From TrEMBL:
The keyword DNA-binding applies. One of its GO terms (molecular function) is DNA binding. Residues 11-83 form the Transcription regulator PadR N-terminal domain. It comes from Actinokineospora terrae. This is DNA-binding transcriptional regulator, PadR family.
Length: 190
């Protein structure tokens, strides 16, 4: 639910105000259903829950020739929760769904904040890589032998994640991507 919550809050933050169908269409255009496991039902559940939790406010809105609909706006608490989720998704290895959502919401952070979170990720991945190397190569042989293939896969994934994080960190340090520097979001069309 956290990746879904992050994406819902992020799209509403960027849009300023949006109704459920707009949020769903935006996330579908990003193909978030495949890389964040977002389903229409979970999206609407996340919207209702965010309103209940005080992260979004909802208001009835006249439909364009159709039925009335509900539009959503983000609250200060919602903005704080979005920032917390993106920071966590970037800095904490182990949850690919949260990482994918955090990458999509990267510009919602200030540049120095994103850089700090990626440095945390790099440090955590370096520790995990050393631990995996010690486990894979430093002790007695792994039994049964074919289990070593798992260790090789996990190590390769850690190395790839580490390489990717270092490259993104360098891009951000070099000024890549429009970020939320002045407290206002980069614009998207919703």
């Amino acid at each position: 639910m956290s990746a879904t919550r992050m994406l819902v809050l992020g799209v509403v933050f960027w849009a300023g105000k949006a109704h459920g169908y707009q949020i769903r269409a935006e996330l579908q255009s990003w193909r978030a259903d495949s890389w964040a496991r977002i389903k229409p039902g979970s999206l609407y559940h996340a919207l209702r829950r965010a309103v209940t939790d005080g992260l979004l406010v909802d208001a009835p809105e006249q439909g364009d020739g159709g039925p009335d609909r509900t539009s959503y706006s983000i609250t200060e608490a919602g903005r704080a929760e979005l920032t917390r989720l993106v920071r966590s998704g970037l800095s904490t290895p182990g949850d690919p769904w949260m990482l994918n959502a955090a990458i999509a919401m990267l510009p919602t952070l200030r540049r120095e904040d994103a850089i700090a979170r990626l440095k945390e990720r790099v440090s955590a991945l370096e520790v995990q890589r050393r631990e995996m190397e010690d486990w894979s190569f430093g002790g007695p042989p792994i039994k049964p032998e074919h289990v070593m293939e798992q260790a090789q896969l996990w190590l390769a994934q850690l190395v790839a994640d580490l390489e990717w994080a270092r490259k993104l960190l360098a891009k951000l340090e070099d000024g890549a991507y429009e970020m939320t520097e002045d407290g206002t979001p980069p614009s998207i069309q919703v």
